[in-house]
Amino acid sequence: MELTQRTQAIHADDGLNVTSDVAPPLHVSTTFRYADDPKDLVPAADADIFTTEAHVYSRHTAPSSTRLEAVLAPLLKAPCLTYASGLAALHAAYVYLNPGRVSIGDGYHGSHGVLDIQKKLCGTRILPLQCPASDLQPGDVIHLETPLNPTGEAYNIAEYADKAHSRGAILLVDSTFAPPGLQDPFEWGADIVMHSGTKYLGGHSDMLCGVLATNKKQWLTGLREERIFLGSVMGSMESWLGVRSLRTLDLRVIRQSENASKLVQWLDFCKHTESEDEEADLVKPVVERIQHASLQHEDMPWLKQQMPNGFGPVFAIWTKEETMARWLPSLLTLFHHATSLGGVESLIEWRSMSDRTVDSRVLRVSVGIEDWEDLKADLKRGFKELLRNPKA
Q1: Checking DSSP bridges between strand 80-83 and strand 101-104, what pairing results, if any?
Q2: What letter does residue 353 receive in the DSSP assignment?
Q3: In whole angstroms, what is the distance from residue 32 CA to residue 285 CA?
Q4: What is the dihedral of CA 122, 145, 90, 16, to 10 degrees?
Q5: Per-residue pLDDT of the chain (392 residues; tens, 9 = 90+)
Q6: Which of 193, 243, 352, 377 has the fewest Cβ atoms nearer than 10 Å?
Q7: How far apart are the C-alpha atoms of 127 and 204, rounded to whole Å?
Q8: Which spans in the chain are helix H?
Q9: Cα torsion angle, 180, 374, 291, 112, sign
Q10: DSSP 8-state class, residue 57
Q11: Distance between CA atoms of residues 218 and 61, nearest Å
Q12: Long-range CB contacts for residues 217-224, cutoff 8 Å, separation at least 24
């Protein structure tokens, strides 16, 4: 029987059950006993250290992380490996692929930090995302983040896959902002997909996680072997939390994406309406512009195919003045002023707090699963208070 992704999130790991517990138990041991019978002992030279049937040491495999990877694989539509964080996963990808050139655009500043290290160690050349295809050579990487951090802008994966493959290059897609249920990069030509599982895969702001997925068996084997020596494995507690989180991934992400789109459409209407409107009178003096994939109207012919179930739960607001971006988060009640994203609670961040490269007027909004009307009312109260505040 072929199961949907929603059902796989609940049952993909059923084959790993070894107790009668309905909720998977948490295993915290870092080391595991060898077989009691000497006849059953297999020396390391002859053993498959990655078998899930006989764990040896948790830097290789462990029950909780193995279970998490078993649930993730059908959701990502490819075998996968978990790591201690999103940047740990990205670093592992670049260590393994070791490209001579990486074509990358704007996006998460942490990814650029990883590439700075790669450049220092290996002399990797950094090219702009829109470089000519002729600048790429076999083994080079196009690093495509879509939707983009912090703005939520989406890019055409198939277009960049064609560009990369025309030169024998590799397409790496960071799909953190569009987890399973919203986007499948492999459908559009990605060679390897990365997620910061800290965000939507975790979904509760209580775990760090990174994921690499690929259908290239040789790559997966190499990445797994190198992970042992990089040492960037997930802890057992985090892995257990990840399994818990994936059970509700579809419910959370679809609701968050719907909420974000409703808020974006409301803000966009208020920003552009020419009629007299009380809500527009609050939005227009504060908001310079809004960015989100749902506003890419000219791109809808490909975007609706790439993201058929929603355009992601993150969007960005540019305020009229820097002081407005600094003050607004503190005037809100339901949006926590904090970095990161993807949790069930809504967050707003004056992005300058964690990213020195961004426009100082940018607010990144990560929408949670609250009632969107309540979030809208909170923003209205915040805008009203901001306009009353002489310091802002």
Answers
A1: unpaired
A2: G
A3: 62
A4: -150
A5: 789 999 999 999 999 998 899 999 999 999 999 999 999 998 888 887 666 568 999 999 999 999 999 999 999 999 999 999 999 999 999 999 999 999 999 999 999 999 999 999 999 999 999 999 999 999 999 999 999 999 999 999 999 999 999 999 999 999 999 999 999 999 999 999 999 999 999 999 999 999 999 999 999 999 999 999 999 999 999 999 999 999 999 999 999 999 999 999 999 999 999 888 899 999 999 999 999 999 999 999 999 999 999 999 999 999 999 999 999 999 999 999 999 999 999 999 999 999 999 999 999 999 999 999 999 999 999 999 999 986 66
A6: 377
A7: 35
A8: 5-11, 63-76, 86-97, 109-122, 157-165, 217-230, 236-246, 249-272, 278-283, 300-306, 322-327, 372-388
A9: negative
A10: B
A11: 18
A12: 217/79, 219/96, 219/192, 220/79, 220/81, 222/96, 223/81, 223/92, 223/93, 223/96, 224/50, 224/81
Tokens of 288: 């310079």
Indicate the pairing of strand 141-145 with strand 125-128: unpaired
Q: In what order do the strands lie in the sheet with 336-337?
A: 287-291, 314-319, 362-366, 347-350, 336-337
Q: What is the spatial distance between Cα 171 and Cα 385, in angstroms, rounded to a whole number? A: 46
Task: Answer yes or no: are the C-beta atoms of 122 and 146 closer than 8 Å.
Answer: no
Angle at 158 between CA 153 and CA 159, to 5 degrees: 80
Alpha-helix runs per DSSP H in 143-248: 157-165, 217-230, 236-246
Amino acid code (one letter) for 255:
R
For helices 109-122 and 86-97, angle between their N-to-C axes, nearest 10 degrees: 30
- For 285, the token pair is 């003096």
- Residue 59, both tokens: 């830097």
Which residue, 321, 320, 317, 342, is CA-closest to 332?
Answer: 317
